[in-house]
Amino acid sequence: MTDHKIEEKERSKRIQLEIATFRNKKELGLHSITDKLSIKMSFPSKKVYDRLAESLKSTFHIEHEVLPKDEEQEKDEYLQDEPIEKKDNSKAPPVLYFSYYDYDEILRFFTEEHEDVSFEPIPPFVFQVLDHYENQIKSFKNKSKKSPKDYDLSLRLPSNLYNNILPFQKEGIEYAISRDGRVMLCDEMGLGKTLQALGIASFYPKEWPMLIIGPCSLHNNWRRELNTWIDAEWLKKHMGKEFNFTGDSLDPYICIVDSSQGLAKVIEETRENPKKYLVYIISYDLASKNAEDENSDAVKWLLDFSIIITDESHMLKNDGSKRTQNIIPLLRSAKRLVLISGTASPSRPIELFTQMKALLCGPKSKKTLLKKTEFGYRYCDLKTNFFTGADYRGNRFLSELNLLLSRSIMIRRLKRDVLTQLPPKRRYLTYLSLPDEDIGPHRLTFENFNQRKGKNLRFDPNDIEILQKFNLTAIAKQKTVARYARYTFKKGEKFIIFAHHRSVMNAIEEEIKKEIEEVEKNEGKKLKFVRIDGETPVEQRHAISQEFREDPDVKVAILSIAVAGM
């Protein structure tokens, strides 16, 4: 028998202690940040329970007891959003809940009175994190009571932004402010994480300029969102004197850094005029590349930001990658840090570690409250051996991890949780920037066509020139569109993409196939896609569409606009 199997067998004989919450109402499996914390004691067998139950009940106040017939399988919300099947718990031993503040006495009960009973304690870091944020939130509540105007969002945020946020988005902003502006926004896609991030940053105007790190494909979207929600009146009120703000738009004060040469130029410009820009936007790869040398001007410049927003923060999930190793120190140094991700942990708890490490800092923001080995043993079922080293791919105590996250740094709502607050439907335009190498060969052709268009000539839809130019647009954009489709696929949610040109559909299919192969190689998941175009037999189209709806592993439907009836 291997060491791992021996350890698992021994563990199965232990009493397990974990921090949890309970509710009297059935079918409410989600943890609320206002629920009362308890110590949950799970027994390895009915025999062990019968031996200790009377002594435990006479020594401690039992807050709640779950009998086998009533015990429900917990849903680990941070990893899985869909309901999972309930298991037969009729043979499971009872579970006892004790006061959160009785934990030290419970430890003493086992170590002094029942030394022969094997149990698994709760690591100290779990209490350190919970206690740290409990004190921080108490401090926030006291300050907001003494100076309510200082924490009134209607007075602090841009009026355009405040007047358009929904109640749950306001709660998200308040959640972040109560944690000194260091938070992980993990709401489901479409619930306005960008808007909430800008609201959080706007609460601290004296700490601008801010840095936004995210994929290149989202840079123009951030520029658009900034110009939409940060209005000139608010800028003049808070930035007018210090940044010499003039005009009616934030746009001239937004700087998108897209190359190392561009970064060097920006650093030189800001050295002469530190208040030239209010917002800087940069990609993960560019920030990482220029953060390798700790003594470089780029690192000093990056470390100077008090407010940092990282979009798609799950791109930092691998703590062994250079990108993560170079960027995490920058994030930890920021006074305010907003991590945005709809899928913070796509498959394993260890993928949350680096993001948690960036946010979970002590009172002086110098020492992290989290260590990898402790986290691994508690939540990743860490195993080590001579040949493979440390294996963090497992998972344990997921419900406690979800509770730890929601009580400290993470807020996550699903659409079904806030459905009554959502408008019927929202439509968004996403602008993609085409690289010169894709559009360059056709630039002159497009310019000549635009000149003809400017003369207000009537176009014939059967005009061969028009059709040729239409096809050229497909050739120019297909690589960028395909890469964006692959980026969307990484989110792990089902989506449909419509296209007209076969070449665009082919490019999208190739990128999706590459991502599917990568997911299967790294995570062992066999994801799929479907495609319907003119070559798809009519009798098969309905079955293919049903497969997309019903098979959870089919994440993408690539559809022809003409064939799919759009």
Automatic annotation (TrEMBL):
Keyword annotations of the record: Hydrolase
Alphabetized Gene3D superfamilies for the sequence: P-loop containing nucleotide triphosphate hydrolases, Tandem AAA-ATPase domain
CC per GO annotation: nuclear replication fork
Pfam families hit by this protein: SNF2-rel_dom (PF00176)
Domain Helicase ATP-binding: 174-362
GO biological process terms held by the UniProt record: DNA repair; replication fork processing
GO molecular function: ATP binding; hydrolase activity
InterPro entries, per the entry: Helicase_ATP-bd, P-loop_NTPase, SNF2-like_sf, SNF2_N
Record flagged with keyword Hydrolase: yes
Name of the protein this chain belongs to: Predicted protein
Lineage: Eukaryota, Discoba, Heterolobosea, Tetramitia, Eutetramitia
